[in-house]
Automatic annotation (TrEMBL):
Pfam families: CoA_transf_3. Residues 338-355 have a biased composition (Pro residues). PANTHER family: SUCCINATE--HYDROXYMETHYLGLUTARATE COA-TRANSFERASE. Keywords: Transferase. GO terms for molecular function: CoA-transferase activity. It comes from Mycolicibacterium hassiacum (strain DSM 44199 / CIP 105218 / JCM 12690 / 3849) (Mycobacterium hassiacum). InterPro entries: CoA-transferase_III_domain (IPR050483), CoA-Trfase_fam_III (IPR003673), CoA-Trfase_III_dom3_sf (IPR044855), CoA-Trfase_III_dom_1_sf (IPR023606). This is CoA-transferase III family protein.
């Protein structure tokens, strides 16, 4: 069976992780990816996060993972322009980023390529986007986390230390995953456009939780202080374990599990977090008296989210990953690496393939593109490049997913974030809830139940569900299941993210769904997968982050790791979208339905892959190091002389020096001629060895200046720097304003509020992303059921029997009248 993207040709003009991961996802699905490298090769070939020595002629292990199955062509930007031009002639898409002499040649910039090769989808990945006042400013993944608000995030860390970033360069992988999805979305409408991906914007969506909408709608930030999650990641008798409470019921169950039923107070004025913090000492003592295995067995029985804390040394030996075959041996390097972040039935993905040697395919392609020949770039019936079809122009406003109907049975963050992109790009997404169990994000905004229509006031639900239609169905009722079956019969896609047992109990496995709609694509997004010993464990972001290794690299070396509590869900959502688009391509080519299993943890172990790769390749266990990191030195947060909006001396800037040129700029900006003249600081290794001394100097320099003064001084000299933003202040960034990242959205219950959009701009549109607000509970019951052929009398009967409704169970009109 041909893989879904067989025949799709992508020229990779990127350098580094983000572009490499984007094109890896494409290559995994069968695309032919031609990596064009300068004579010295992609710098990633020489990269090791642990600083391992890579022998001449060999490649770094991370490159071996990211470049699997690709072709390598060497090109001198001055003498091989015809070669690169010929590759572009025969391609369908280009993925571009700065960092390569070829990509930065004036004839191969994104706009230049679009001008000379209008048939291509050109996907550009840059820190801030191709336009706007910051488009040429220096940045690193670390400083972008600061600008996004992701370092402050959801109150991660503790107040006695600086806030801390999410380790492991997760922002690079998020950008790559979004770039891949945007490229495939463009492909669905024929390509021929520029896709402009902003890493700042992908960081906002991946590391913060709709903070602007939250602040504007409710008048308060999600968190106003840093506090360690309790119990969170705690020390058991024999190791680290993550235990979480995402709901009130889970807190009650935790009280019972630890033998403290007296802590349960359903009428407490305190939040779950505040109640847990009151009893932190007793909870930590209980955990310390038990082994990880004992706690996990108990917590799983109580349905409390839990996971061991994985790292590069232990992750591929954890029983769940062994049972699922989650890690394989790299075919060339011999190290361990994760399998692709999704699985399909039928199996659509080719087996792992080796990365190319530097320039391995140069002569092959040189012979193909020489002598030059005239090409007429167009599309065949599959949307692939041909020499005789009519070119696809910029005209036409058809959105990528117009005509696609999606039944969205998802809840909370991961699933709705996947279907939200579909809705924003034109799909008819019908969000299915029930009055007994509304979408969980309706319930976690902290809106008192005494407020009128409190369930409609969640900024999180609003941020995740614009452009969707909403219905309610009681699926415990046979009549509700019949309505769902009739809806599925009209759908192209069914998406759900419950634990597997829930769908099994409803009788909605893939075989049952295919009996209703044989060619449907069913996307399942369980936390830990459809099989394996952790299959039925509840999965929230924090346990996914712990189980995958993301948490291990987040925090300070002398403390237990901090839960990122952010990336696990949106990372799963964007990876699931990529999986869905690949499956839809297979369906389009063959007419065959596909089951897609996009487990949250599989997406997470892919973006955390470097840990197991470094350990198995070099024996190096990567460690958390506060705000320092392997990609830059010095790299840290430094306090400014300001008082924050909460009255605290808690304002910070992020500085990251990733090159010798940036080091020289830092010395000039700070007036440290002594640093510039010190030969021990002339190399990255030397600066890393002297990090403490450099930190002392930067602490003193920053302490007398405002964040704006520091940013202006360092940016003037080409140094990556950022203010550590409170996430609800994202709208104050002029770059986001210039790109229109936020759009005002009206709502029948809530005030007009800014909502974040997509982290990429497509030259063929849409001009505006949000065209309707998130649906009220059951708002479109009558509309959708009428489309399915139900009469008014039948719809009224379903409402009277409680099969459909528009208020949560227990909060009906009579209950509101008694309030």
């Amino acid at each position: 069976m041909e893989p879904p993207l067989d025949g799709y040709v992508v020229v990779d003009l990127s350098a580094g992780i983000a572009g490499g991961y984007c094109t890896k996802l494409l290559a995994d699905a069968g695309a032919r990816v031609i990596k064009v490298e300068p004579p010295e090769g992609d710098w990633l070939r020489r990269w090791s996060a642990s600083g391992a020595c890579i022998a001449p002629g060999e490649d770094g292990a991370l490159f071996g993972f990211l470049a699997g199955g690709k072709h390598s062509v060497l090109a001198d930007p001055d003498t091989d322009r015809d070669l690169v031009t010929g590759l572009l002639d025969d391609a369908d898409a280009v993925v571009w980023s700065r960092g390569s002499a070829v990509a930065e040649s004036v004839v191969f910039t994104p706009l230049a390529i679009r001008s000379t090769h209008p048939h291509l989808t050109v996907t550009a990945i840059t820190p801030f986007g191709l336009d706007g006042p910051w488009s040429d400013r220096p940045a690193t993944e670390f400083t972008l986390q600061a600008w996004s608000g992701g370092i402050v995030g959801l109150g991660r860390g503790s107040a006695d230390r600086a806030p801390v970033y999410v380790g492991g360069q997760v922002g690079e992988y998020l950008a790559g995953a979004y770039a891949c999805a945007a490229t495939l979305a463009s492909r669905m409408r024929g390509g021929a456009e520029l896709v402009d991906v902003s890493m700042l914007e992908t960081s906002i969506l991946g590391l913060t939780y709709y903070p602007v909408s939250y602040y504007e709608m409710l008048g308060r930030p999600w968190r106003d202080a840093r506090r360690v999650t309790v119990p969170g990641i705690a020390s058991a008798k024999d190791g680290l374990i993550d235990i979480g409470c995402g709901t009130a019921q889970q807190w009650f169950d935790l009280c019972a599990m630890t033998g403290h039923e007296e802590w349960i107070d359903e009428n407490s004025p305190l939040t779950i977090t505040e109640q847990a913090n009151l009893h932190a000492e007793e909870l930590y003592a209980w955990v310390a008296e038990h082994t990880v295995a004992e706690i996990r067995e108990l917590a799983t029985a109580f349905r409390i989210p839990n996971a061991p804390v994985a790292n590069g040394a232990n992750i591929d030996s954890l029983d769940h990953f062994v049972a699922r075959g989650s890690f394989v041996t790299n075919p060339r390097g011999g190290f361990r690496q994760p399998v692709p972040p999704y699985r399909t039935q039928p199996d659509l993905l080719p087996p792992p393939r080796p990365a190319p040697r530097l320039g391995e395919h140069t002569e092959l392609y040189r012979s193909r593109v020489s002598p030059p020949r005239k090409r007429n770039h167009g599309r065949d019936s599959r949307g692939l490049a041909t020499g005789n079809a009519i070119p696809v122009g910029e005209s036409g406003n058809r959105l990528p997913f117009e005509g696609l109907r999606v039944v969205d049975m998802t809840t909370f963050w991961a699933g709705p974030s996947c279907t939200h992109v579909l809705a924003m790009l034109g799909a008819d997404v019908i969000h299915v809830e029930s009055t007994r169990r509304p979408d969980g994000t309706r319930l976690i905004a902290g809106v008192p139940v005494t407020e009128e229509q409190w369930w409609e006031r969640s900024p999180i639900f609003s941020g995740l569900n614009t452009n969707k239609r909403g219905i309610t169905l009681d699926l415990q009722n046979e009549a509700g299941r019949e309505v769902l079956n009739r809806l599925i019969a009209t759908a192209d896609v069914l998406v759900e993210n419950f634990t597997p047992r829930v769908i099994d109990q409803l009788g909605l496995d893939f075989a049952a769904v295919q009996r209703i709609r044989p060619d449907i694509v069913m996307l399942r997004m369980p936390g830990f997968g459809l099989d394996g010993p952790w299959r039925d464990n509840p999965a929230f972001a924090y346990v996914i982050e712990a189980a995958s290794g993301i948490s291990w690299l987040t925090g300070y070396p002398d403390r237990n790791p901090y839960e990122p509590y952010s990336v696990g869900d949106p990372n799963a959502g964007i990876h699931a979208l990529n999986a869905l688009l690949v499956a839809l391509e297979h369906r389009r080519r063959t007419g065959q339905g596909v089951l897609v299993e996009a487990a949250m943890v599989d997406a997470a172990i892919n973006v955390a892959a470097e840990q197991v790769i470094e350990y198995s390749a070099y024996g190096a266990l990567l460690q958390r190091d506060g705000n320092r990191g392997p990609a830059a030195a010095p790299q840290n947060l430094y306090r400014t002389n300001e008082i924050d909006e909460f009255g605290r001396a808690d304002c910070w800037v992020a500085v990251a020096v990733a090159s010798d040129e940036q080091w020289a700029g830092l010395c000039r900006a700070t007036g440290r001629e002594d640093w510039a003249a010190d030969p021990s600081l002339g190399t990255a290794a030397g600066r890393r060895a002297e990090h403490d001394r450099l930190d002392e100097g930067l602490v003193a320099w920053c302490a007398t200046r405002t964040g704006d003064e520091i940013v202006a001084a360092l940016w003037e000299h080409g140094v990556p720097v950022a203010k550590v933003m409170q996430p609800h202040r994202q709208t104050e960034l002029p770059q986001l304003a210039a790109r229109g990242f936020f759009e005002e959205v009206s709502h029948p219950v809530n005030p007009r509020t800014p909502h974040s959009t997509l982290p990429f701009r497509m030259s063929r549109g849409p001009e505006r992303v949000h065209v309707r607000p998130a649906p009220l509970l059951g708002e479109h019951n009558r509309e959708v059921l009428t489309e399915l052929g139900f009469t008014d009398a039948e719809i009224t009967d379903l409402q009277e029997r409680g099969v459909i409704g528009d208020v949560p169970a227990g909060y009906g009109r009579d209950a509101r009248a008694r309030k």
